[in-house]
Structures are given as C-alpha cells and as structure tokens.
Write a structure and sequence with these properties.
This protein has 183 residues and is mainly alpha-helical. Helices cover 72% and strands 2% of the residues. It is built from seven helices and two strands. A hairpin with a 6-residue loop joins strand 1 and strand 2. Helix 1 crosses helix 2 and helix 2 packs across helix 4.
Length: 183
Amino acid sequence: MLKSKTYAYAITAMGAAIIAVLAQVTIPLPLVPITGQTLAIGLVVTILGTRYGTLSVILYILLGAIGVPVFTGFSGGLSILVGPTGGYIVGFVPTALIMGMYLAKFGVTYPQAIIANIIGMVITLSFGTTWLKIVGDLSWTAAFMGGAAPFIIVGIIKAAAAAWLGVLIRKRLLNAQLLQQLA
C-alpha cells in the first residue's frame, strides 16, 4: 500500500526524471531523431503502472512545456510541442495510459509487457507521423517514411528492452517492498 502522498509524488517525479535522462540519448536522423524517450516511457509505465506511469509522462511534458530542458538535446518550451516532434511527445500520454491499462488487465509478465510496449510504439508513431504530416505539410507517404518507417525496427528492440528491464526492476522493487502493486 502507498505509504503517503509524498511517496506517490516521489515515484511520479522519479518516473519523469528517468524519461528526461533517457531523452538525452539520441541518434540524429534527417526529420526526427531516434531517442531514448520511448524506451523510458515503456520502462516507467511497466514499472509504475497506469496511474503513476501516466502521471510521470504528464509531469515530464509539463516540465518541458514550461521551459525546463528535459526534451531531447536538453531543449524545452512550447515551441518543441508545436514543432515537428511535438506529436510524438503529446502521444506519450495516450501511449502511457493505454499501455498501463493493458498491463493492468493482462498482467505484468515479459510477454504481456512486450505486447504493451509494441502497442505503445504504434500509438506514439501514429501520433508523431500524423503531427509531422500536418506541421511539415507533407504527404502521408513522406510523413510515414520520415516519421515512422525508420523507427519500426529500433522501436521493437526498445519495446523488448523496456519490457525486460521494466518487469525485472518491478519484480525487484516489489520483492524489496519498495513498490506496491500499482494500477
């Protein structure tokens, strides 16, 4: 059982911090870089569950929106959210929510966590590609080729890594009684 609101705030902040740190891991590409953000979203939601995973994502986005340099490349501000990568960032909220709900329904096991993380990847790429098409005034083909296609294979790898690490860390935290079964 959660011991206090302070504990809930602390794990939410820790989740947001993990996302901010992994967001700095980047591989530049022409339109949209490969980042550790999606790995972090999957990891945080797998560990913390629907409520606190989603709250961590919202906190991360709010921090970035007000200018704290938590987004990729130590950037921040509303201009990032309305720029070419904004759709991916905004898409992290439904990604976290749906992933968490899936895991709550089917259990936090390796196979289910991989499925949840792949679902999350599809949601994030869908939001990002749609936003890229609108903001970049691109055709659907150009938006898909620049905003989704390069990320599918690496996204599956990140989904598997987030699932494996997330389940492992969650089990260890539960065994150490540092985390409860969170929804």
